[in-house]
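Re: folding output
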Amino acid sequence: MGEMLGLTENAGDYESWLNEVKDALASINMPFEGWQGIWAYDFRQEFDGGTKANEAALKANKFWWHEQNKAIGQDCQKTPNCWLPRDHRGECQRM
């Protein structure tokens, strides 16, 4: 029974954390439901790794922009995993 309780508590913690992520994403006009439905980001891994909700939201934002840029053929060609669009100004920024 204790193991079941632990799983329930962890699930509740995850849901609370994920709600914080959703709020952070909404604040930068990146609705979770829209983007996660197209390109799934591994939020569970971030939660399990102890990543703060705001930081996970920023990582997801970069991931989603990277995926979108690739999908439309506008991904950066200078540096692998740079989330900025092709021919961007300034230095590359890895995800």
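--- second protein (sequence, then structure) ---
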Amino acid sequence: MKKRKSTLGENLKKKKLHEKLIPLNNMLTQDFFGGSIPDAGDICVFSIINLIVRAGIKDCLVDYKKLYDHYTRVYLTGSIKDYVKQNPEVYFVYKEKSTEKNVLSNSI
């Protein structure tokens, strides 16, 4: 089960995440998805990316400059910055594949 989880995590980071971020990055032709001011769609995209970052994939936007700039603009909108600083709990955590062997699996 542990191997399956690490495979799923690596697949998320290396493939699935990029498949979702590429179209979003390409859709950004202005400061926000709907124009010059943020709307619900911008908040939604920010929220999902923020969850991914807080779950441990902190470099998820490194190859997506427009999305990174969008994320920063939304972060500075209204009280979003204050909310993020509260560091609410996330419901999943991404962990890099460990090179250490599990001690318990060696004894079975």
